[in-house]
Amino acid sequence: MAVTRIWPIKGHIGAVITYAADKRKTDEARYSDGERALLRSIHYAEDENKTMLQSEQKLLVEGINCDPDCAVQQMTDTKELYGKTGGIVAYHAYVSFKPDEVTAQQAQEIGMEIAREMWGKDYEMIVATHQNARCMHCHIVINSVSMTDGKKMNENKAMYNRFRETADRICFERGLSVIAHPKKKRVPYNVYMAQQKGIKTKYDYMKAAIDFAIRHSPDDRRFLQVMRDQGYFISNFGSPERYATIRSRTDEHGVRLANLGADYTPEAIRNRIRMQDRYELNGNIMGYNHYKRYFVNNVYVYRYKDIEFEESRRTYRSEEAFAKMAGSCVQGMLGGVIIGAPVISLLLLALLFVGALIEVHDCNPHPMSPEMKMLRPKITFMQEQIDLAVNEKLYNYADVERFIADTSLKMEQLKFERSKVYNRIRGSKDPAKLAELIKQRDAMTKELAGLRAKLKLAQRIIDDQPMLLGKVEAEKEQMREWYFPQRTLEQNKDRHRDDGAR
User: Fold this and answer.
1) Residue 474 · residue 249 · CB < 8 Å
2) CA 400, CA 455: separation in Å to the nearest integer?
3) In the CATH hierarchy, which top-level class contains the domain 3-182?
4) How far apart are CA 162 and CA 102, in angstroms?
């Protein structure tokens, strides 16, 4: 199974530069921005930690129309010859194989054959096989300027399709598996990385909420209500002419149900509701109704009976209610000292809602909003922010900004002092004095690392403020609808148009 992709490389290649920079072979200071981008791309492909063939102790790196040892210079000379040194400096392609289907040497041979057939007549290339991942894969770095006529490579859909078809044909001829029907849409990179780390994405939470609503719903109306209880709104569920979409309160665009998978289209959801075991469904519905009635009629009224609201309980003094509910917990934890500190109060309130603090109820609280669920992976980071704010007495955002400025200045001074130590290390001949200087340098480096971590936490406090405020407000809105369902105003009417659905 060969998976293929190709993309252009310009003067700055972001994460690839950070990850792939290899300083083993040359000093990059004498190169221009474009040459450094080309150099780093080739070094990424040539990284010996990934390309070393253990059995033969040699690197799986080969050149086509160029020498791998001086490929950067040769490709740069070609660009200068035709006066095309700017813009896209190279193209980076890869071919990935099914796990345990090919050896490293076979993968390299296939990569060389694909590269020769695709671009071997006109372009200089480096082909390298990496063995550091679960799947064996080849990287191909192609000069953007042709060595024969000086024309720049024209990257387009037709070229990519020919690249994929060539790779599939060569793999098929060698008896390897190929993807018969490749997906038209790729998984977004941030979603893919979250899946690799085992972190749930908003799409996972959407699917889990739909599964829960199906188990507790005998019909469409009940299904939409349970979805609302969980903080999701579905539009056009019964419309055959428009796409059904799902969104949370803070989503700017809806997500088409069909994009969640074949089991989550409106037709599939109705079939799943209809095919449920009636006995089990009735039990789930009774349990859910009892759970919700208990909270609405007993827990909230009992614990916050001193909060003023009308006899019908359709309106109430929301700010006072949430001040009592959240503020009592915050005051209890820190003795009421920091309830007036916006920084710490916001972080604590977010942690309270996300479930990281002691629950204010004797039993399970209301359903957590989707916005708060998305904060779960950040719990540890937020706790570190709270520790920093308490220890450094950062009670408001002006305090945080002053701390950032003071810490940055302190880091610059420490770097300057450390540079003096480095100079003394280079000129030292006394072993005892050298050991002392190295110890001093390491202590400064450790102190710098600690300051850098604090600076990152403080900067994120500033950057995350709008996001946290939005999520806390979304959680409050969900609480209002849960504890006071009769107060909900026109929630059946979607506030966002469906034409922006993704």
Assistant:
1) yes
2) 10
3) alpha beta
4) 23
